Amino acid sequence: MGLRSPEWRRWALLIGGWLFVVLGVAGLFLPFLQGFLFLFVGLALLSLASPRMRLMRMRVGARYPAFRTAEARARAWMREKGRRFGFAGRKTGPGDRPPSSGS
Prior knowledge:
This protein is mostly helical. 70% of the residues lie in helices and 0% in strands.
């Protein structure tokens, strides 16, 4: 099980997501942290690793079209930044699957 295996990626996303959620909750009460920003980033990371969070993100997007529009703009922005820094071949969206290793 190498560092690039899907299991390592999933664990890293879960740990990072929960870390940002905890910082977000703390930021709701502390004046020097941006609570909502940390919560949003944490939930976005969790939606990449957890099917339950992914379903929640899809339901929120269906109910609030502005959320889906903002998410699409953020994904396009990340793709553009990735191209600028040489990550053009990588997929960045939560719904994107990693490239297959087969032929």
